[in-house]
Amino acid sequence: MNFCSDNVTEVCPEIMAALIAANEGAMMPYGGDEYTQRLETKFSLIFETPVTVFPVTTGSAANALALSAITPGYGAIYCHAESHINVDECGAPEFYTGGAKLVTLNGTDAQIHPSELSKTLENAGAGVVHHVQPAAVSITQATEVGTVYLPEEIGEIAKITHAHNLCLHIDGARLANAVVSLDCAPADITWRAGVDVLCFGATKNGAMAAEAAIFFNQDLAKTFAYRRKRSGHLFSKMRYLSAQLETYITDNLWLKNASHANEMATKLAQGLVKLPLLRLCHPVEANEVFVEIPESMVNALRADGFEFYVWQEGTLPIIRLVTAFNTREEDVDALLKSVKRHSVVDLME
């Protein structure tokens, strides 16, 4: 009963079947295969606009390489302090941009607030030779704490970003969860809202290892192919990445998987808020639940067979519970039952 991450899951059956099918016969390498050749047409249909698509294996590669295509080495990338590119990518964006600086912003629920972004950019020192030059803004959808930006919020951020001649990037490792949560068209929270480039995630939502850098502003994609090759992310047997991505976006599999994950997180959150001694730390809008619990409960829950990450240590630790496309409802029920039992014990003590 592992709630550590949506990375702990197996590959969903449809994608595993697609990989087996793609394993038949010889196909041209380096993206010359039929699967890769179909991707841009299929992604263009989903996003309702022509796009340029580059498959890669990891979200960190997609983010770092996409940012390198829109940010010079003397540039600045504005992101939330809790963003994946700032906290969890081991300096990859700085490395692949050739030294660009990540400038972090604060904001509740891991979201950049337009007013703070505007103030920061107005005082960023554009044109001043002593300062890094503003180049890009990066937001995460859904965020690192499981909240989502509304289309109009992204639109406001995009308006500010473009007014300062910067590009807007989205880390969409959990984009599917955000689309389902908002019940909107994928275009509404990407290019229609002013997004220039998207890193489209599949691995957390049923794929084996498949992500894509998607350029809505196709002029920005001119150097990406070379950057991908130079970084070692041009797969010779590209069909195995593209087959995953093609299946993922066929028949709305990506949204079906995310819908189940979101539903399980909502069920979990609704059960937790009814119990004493617990506090939800953020709105549950996708598939992540952050909850403050008594310290004694951490080991008790683990002893009952549940795995999760402690996000913040302390007398009242914060734990992160993540649901996925294959989270079993009975496991959610079992976790709620266990928490309820230990809550009663703590109250009695």
**Secondary-structure arrangement, i.e. CATH architecture of the largest domain:** 3-Layer(aba) Sandwich
CATH fold topology of the largest domain: Aspartate Aminotransferase, domain 2
Please tell me how large the radius of gyration is: 21 Å
N-C termini distance: 27 Å
Please outline the major beta sheet.
Answer: 7 strands, mixed
**What structural class do you assign from the helix and strand content?**
alpha/beta
Unreliable stretches, pLDDT < 50, 5 or more residues?
Answer: none
Number of distinct beta strands: 11
Strand content: 15-25%
Counting structural domains, the number is 2
Order of helices and strands: HHEHEHHEHEHEHEEHHHEEHEEH
Q: Just give the CATH class of the largest domain.
A: Alpha Beta
Q: Taking strands numbered 1, 2, ... along the chain, how are they ordered across the largest sheet? A: 1-7-6-5-4-2-3
Mean pLDDT: 96
Proportion in helices: 40-55%
CATH 4th-level superfamily of the largest domain: Type I PLP-dependent aspartate aminotransferase-like (Major domain)
Q: What general form does the structure show?
A: globular
Count of separate DSSP helical elements = 13
Topology:
Layout lengths: L12 H10 L11 H14 L4 E5 L2 H12 L4 E6 L3 H4 L4 H6 L3 E5 L8 H9 L10 E8 L10 H13 L3 E6 L2 H8 L14 E5 L9 E5 L8 H7 L8 H10 L4 H20 L6 E2 L7 E5 L2 H9 L5 E4 L5 E5 L6 H20 L1
Parallel strand pairs: 2-3, 2-4, 4-5, 5-6
Antiparallel strand pairs: 1-7, 6-7, 8-9, 9-11, 10-11
Helix pairs in contact: 1-10, 2-10, 6-7, 8-11, 11-13, 12-13
